[in-house]
Amino acid sequence: MTATMCRGQYMTILRGVYVLRGFGGRNTRCAQVKGVPEPLPVYEVLGPGALRTRLQLAAHRGLARFVGRETEMAHLNQTLEATRAGRGLDAMHHLGAALGLLDRLPDTPARASRELMLLLSLGPALMDVRGYGAPEVGATYTRARQLCEQLGETSQLFAALLGLRIHNVSRAQYAVGRELGERMLHMAQQAQNADWLLEAHGALGACMFPQGELGAAAAHLKQALALYDPERHQAHVFAHGVDPGIRALNFLALILWLQGYPDQARERSMDALALAQKLAYGPTLAFTLAYAAELHQLRREAPLVRERAEAAIAVSIEHGLPYWLAWGTIFSGWARVQPGNLQDGIAQLREGLRAEQSAGGAEQRSYFLATLADCLWRAGDVEGGLRTLEEATAIVNKTGEHFFDAELHRLKGVMLLASVSEAERVIASSDEAQACFLRAIAVARAQGARALQLRAATNLARLWQRAGRLGEARQVLSEVFDTFTEGLDTGDLRDARALLDALPSSSARTIDDVRG
Fold this sequence. Notes:
Serine Threonine Protein Phosphatase 5, Tetratricopeptide repeat, elongated, about 5% strand, about 70% helix, mainly alpha, 26 helices, 4-stranded antiparallel β-sheet
């Protein structure tokens, strides 16, 4: 039987498909080949090998990254186009198809590396389509983190931690999100990586804000903005789902309002909106419009709330963004309550709260419930308002979401007064309602939330005014009002100014004297 021989240059192609042996045994013999001046190694083909498919061959030869390359690259290119256009559903479909190709490959480091790449691309698309807090988002980034640790991929691990941080914060799991943010900051500092520092500072600021640590949150967000270059960091939105500079501006705007800088807050919000409009990326624009609506709600500017909310709804519908659609619906409902369309507005607000929960969201839930409670009280449903405040307080105790604590105490005081008759109010004013307002002032002062301190002081001053304690009323209100240097045309400051004008100027005990 004549042996089948092949030249050494074909050995790489044939190995695996056939069993080969060097001609002459272990010591491969070189042979003269016609047309080639120098002798070449020659191999003998002994029979069929164990590898029968192109996929098996590529993995065996260490070429797994190229298996199915054409199809996979087509999916990835379509994903990139869909992502840039803000079409998360299309991106998710193409990435799912690309991940499906991996099922045919053996479990090798090359396969794991490709799965990791696809998962980190899938995460932002899932956030858009399913919502940041959706279980699929958590599962995707958890698997990505496991693969990073398995492969020792430090650079990709940072991206996986960032995705998990966004997921956990959107579910109001702030302690977990903060732990992830601190790990990111440690990694960034060790690597001396400016891009990582930008993301880590922004991540920590976004965690500390809902926890009520306003000063620390603002410091981190300002550090993030100092590192931010809109042109250079624009690509982060496609890799991580969020533009880090726009995120920092949106959160900083809310913090500045709470700290008593309503005009600076509005400027930061306008900066964020200008950047988002220039970026023209649907999810980021919806995010920014929703946060702008929140700021205007805090500033009590119903027409602007409605404008921003309806724009957020339109962008969310166009791009299929359930999370921001829910936020837009909440704020649109609030804006509709103001002109007198109470029940329709409240129904829409409730619809938005249910939609946010369906999208896996629980972030800022105490604030949203406080907003609903206030609307219920204005509609005459005081008991419903108090029950809603109890629900909000339970969430605070469960999640550690403290940034709106002072307002929860203040609103409870307002509703307690509304729940009694005019004849009973003098008695009530010295009991629970006064305690609620004093508690709200203390909490707001400790957090540096002057805007909420002003609201509570205004309510307490009105209460004392009715009780004839005019000097004390003026003192408690002027103590905080006189610290404001901007935003004097906003609703809260106008109300405070009008009340001060109605109160006589006289010596009075301080609020600390009252507490003591």
